[in-house]
Write a structure and sequence with these properties.
mainly alpha; 6% strand; 70 residues; single chain; two-stranded antiparallel sheet
């Protein structure tokens, strides 16, 4: 587990890293939800915000595929 992250947040960060490495751009919230086997995009958004607050990623609200790793 990454320091300061819940296990689910750490999973999401790993999924984002793998996706960007494979595709060269960030995943959509729908793709993240599917990868984490959740149905709520709001749940994904909360985790993305938490990752940003902890300094692991940045993103532009309202812009698709704007997640970048820090």
């Amino acid at each position: 587990m990454s320091l300061g992250l819940t296990p689910r947040q750490a999973d999401l960060l790993r999924i984002i890293r793998v996706y960007i490495d494979k595709h060269g751009y960030s995943p959509s919230y729908a793709e993240l939800a599917s990868a984490m086997n959740v149905h709520s995009l709001g749940n994904i958004h909360q985790k993305v915000v938490a990752l940003q607050e902890r300094g692991h990623i940045s993103y532009i609200p309202g812009r698709k595929r704007s997640i970048t790793l820090l």
